[in-house]
Amino acid sequence: MSLPKIAWIGLGIMGSPMSENLIKAGYDVTGYTLEREKLDRLAAAGGTAAASIAEAVRDADVVITMVPASPQVEAIAYGPDGILENARQGALLIDMSSITPQTSVDLAKSAKEKGIRVLDAPVSGGEAGAVEAVLSIMVGGEQADFDEARPVFEALGKTIVLCGPHGSGQTVKAANQLIVAVNIQACAEAVVFLEKSGVDLKAALDVLGGGLAGSTVLTRKKDNFLNRDFQPGFRIDLHHKDMGIVTDAARAVGAALPVGAVVAQLVASLRAQGDGGLDHSALLRAVERLSGAQV
């Protein structure tokens, strides 16, 4: 059987390498985004640049979206120029953005009325995971649609799990972002503590990484901490958005997030200080400021 034709909407830090991995896997990928240079990058990788969402999705078997937040998903999905009005009946829409669970539920309902199937499939792993095609993909939707999409997911990630009905993938992603933010904050506090104590930071992080304190976060972000390199793999702005999602969702179900609420405020304060465009490992800068450093 021939591989399904794919339309990819959103070619940012995550979307560009993910779409390129599908091209490498042999898929015919037509992409659309607002930035011309990113369309040129897709074309250089062997994909096809479209002039509009309608053009990109018209002949696609699978439409994949990867945009920043719920408002952007709604903007590209609805309206006369959006996905639902221009994709063919029977197409599978896979939204890999990180948005509110309710937005995913509403999208699935609206798409069903148009004969379009939907999966919410947010990812974890950051830019490095996208480039290396080792993302963790948490999916919400129907089993049959998940089974159909699995080969596509396997070109993008390594841990691929159907978590439940529509919106479940987004709920799990919200929990993921809670864990990651708290973990980065703990690492940042440890880094400042270690440095102020005069310990060899690289040696300390190496040994911590090999013990119970070790984590994917520490492994991935260790060099960011050591080199104060905060080039964005995942921006503070986006993690601020995600902490809002998990805080609201937890309130709706009656779950207390005492530590998460504090870290959400620390992320918000870092953003307010002008660091929203930096990598989320820049939480280190906030701890340094609180500890008296001029950052």
Automatic annotation (TrEMBL):
<dbReference type="Pfam" id="PF14833">
    <property type="entry name" value="NAD_binding_11"/>
</dbReference>
<keyword id="KW-0560">Oxidoreductase</keyword>
<dbReference type="InterPro" id="IPR013328">
    <property type="entry name" value="6PGD_dom2"/>
</dbReference>
<dbReference type="InterPro" id="IPR036291">
    <property type="entry name" value="NAD(P)-bd_dom_sf"/>
</dbReference>
<dbReference type="InterPro" id="IPR008927">
    <property type="entry name" value="6-PGluconate_DH-like_C_sf"/>
</dbReference>
<dbReference type="GO" id="GO:0051287">
    <property type="term" value="F:NAD binding"/>
</dbReference>
<dbReference type="GO" id="GO:0008679">
    <property type="term" value="F:2-hydroxy-3-oxopropionate reductase activity"/>
</dbReference>
<protein>
    <submittedName>
        <fullName>2-hydroxy-3-oxopropionate reductase</fullName>
        <ecNumber>1.1.1.60</ecNumber>
    </submittedName>
</protein>
<dbReference type="InterPro" id="IPR006398">
    <property type="entry name" value="Tartro_sem_red"/>
</dbReference>
<dbReference type="Pfam" id="PF03446">
    <property type="entry name" value="NAD_binding_2"/>
</dbReference>
<dbReference type="InterPro" id="IPR015815">
    <property type="entry name" value="HIBADH-related"/>
</dbReference>
<feature type="active site">
    <location>
        <position position="173"/>
    </location>
</feature>
<comment type="similarity">
    <text>Belongs to the HIBADH-related family.</text>
</comment>
<feature type="domain" description="6-phosphogluconate dehydrogenase NADP-binding">
    <location>
        <begin position="5"/>
        <end position="164"/>
    </location>
</feature>
<dbReference type="GO" id="GO:0046487">
    <property type="term" value="P:glyoxylate metabolic process"/>
</dbReference>
<dbReference type="InterPro" id="IPR006115">
    <property type="entry name" value="6PGDH_NADP-bd"/>
</dbReference>
<dbReference type="GO" id="GO:0050661">
    <property type="term" value="F:NADP binding"/>
</dbReference>
<feature type="domain" description="3-hydroxyisobutyrate dehydrogenase-like NAD-binding">
    <location>
        <begin position="167"/>
        <end position="286"/>
    </location>
</feature>
<keyword id="KW-0520">NAD</keyword>
<dbReference type="InterPro" id="IPR029154">
    <property type="entry name" value="HIBADH-like_NADP-bd"/>
</dbReference>
